[in-house]
Every structure is written in C-alpha cells, then in structure tokens.
Amino acid sequence: MKRALLFVCFWSLTAGLRAEVLDRMVAVVDGHIITASDVRQEREISMRLGDKPIEDEKALIQHMIDNYLIETQIADFPGVDVTDAEVDAELKNSVPREGVPSAATREAVRLRIRMRKYFELRFGQFIRPSDEDIRNYYNNVFVPAAKERNVNPIPPLDQVTDLIRSNVFQESLNHEINIWLEAIRRRSTIEVFQ
C-alpha cells in the first residue's frame, strides 16, 4: 500500500515537471477567453480574406474583443441569419487561396455578413443623408481630395452624388457603431493580459 501511494506521489510529481504551456490567455471578455492561438488563427483568417493586416498585437486583440461583444449583441437580435450560399458568395470575392476554406474561415465570413446585416437593421435604416450633407461632403472632402490627387477635371456634383451619398452613409453608420460599441465596452468586463 505504501509503495502504491509512493508511486502515485512520484508519478504526480514527475507529471507536473513535464507539463508545458500549450496556449496562454491574452484576454477575457465577460467570461469568454481569448487565447494566443485564437489571435494567430484570426491573423491567418484575415490574411486568407485579403484584409489589411493588423500588425499591432494589442489592436488585433481589441478587434477580437469588439467582434465578440458585437456577436453577443447579434445573438439577441432576431432576423440576422446567414445562408451557406451567402458565405460561398462572399468567399468567392475574397483573395483567392489554394484549397478549401477552413471551417473557421467560413465562420469568420458568416460573422462578418451577420454584422453587416445587423448594423443595417439596427442603425442603417435611420441614416438618410440629406442634400445638404451631400453638398458639404462634396465641397469639404471630395473636391479637396480630388485636387490633392491632381484629378482634372473634377467631376461635378451631379455625376458623383450616388458615390458621395454612399460615403456619407458609411461614415454616419461607422459613427453610430463606434458610439454604440463604446457603450457596450463600458458595460462589459474586459481584461487584457500582457
């Protein structure tokens, strides 16, 4: 009996000495753990989809935290479903890579589509750029940018109205999303580990 107990103690001690770290936590968001391998996977998926790389590790972790917070909000909102056909169509528009996209890549694309639909339902339906907003954007943003790029002649407002309306809409939508997301961050428990 003593030998068995001694063997178990010795085995437990040596097993503990051989333990190695397989992964580490980099953040916890409302009890949801984000690991270093999650960050690596997110970086790989972003590259696969042709996104502009986020080189700064802290910025990438913040991006993942924000995505998790948005995803939890979408879960409470009905009517934001995404079909496999929508995912396939989006993947066809991504940067071509050899091989079949991984399940994680497909889920990342599904989340992106869900987020777009959610933002359109939640905020987009209330954003209606006025003629004055469009004129102001044309005069204060579009024309100066065109001059800086040496565009000659600068297209008149009536030729670029739809483009400008789309830009004004997107900027307004991004502004609303940022305000909303900041409020959610303040209500959440977020820990980031160095």
Residue runs with pLDDT of under 50 for 5 or more positions:
4-11
Structural class determined from secondary elements: mainly alpha
Specify Rg, calculated over alpha carbons: 24 Å
The largest beta-sheet arranges its strands as: 2-1-3
Number of strands: 3
Residues in β-strands, percent:
5-15%
**CA(first)-CA(last) distance:** 46 Å
- How do the helices and strands follow one another from N- to C-terminus? HEEHHHHHHE
**Sheet bearing the most strands, described?**
3 strands, antiparallel
- The helix content, as a percent range, equals 55-70%
Give the oligomeric state: single chain
Number of helices: 7
* Principal-axis shape: globular
Kindly state the mean pLDDT as a whole number?
Answer: 87
SSE blueprint:
Layout: H1 2-17, E1 25-29, E2 32-35, H2 36-48, H3 57-75, H4 84-92, H5 103-122, H6 131-148, H7 157-187, E3 190-192
Antiparallel strand pairs: 1-2, 1-3
Question: Can you describe what's shown?
Answer:
By secondary structure, this protein is mainly α. The chain contains seven helices and three strands, in the order αββααααααβ. The chain has helices at residues 2-17, 36-48, 57-75, 84-92, 103-122, 131-148, 157-187, and strands spanning 25-29, 32-35, 190-192. The chain has a three-stranded antiparallel sheet. The longest helix has 31 residues, at 157-187.
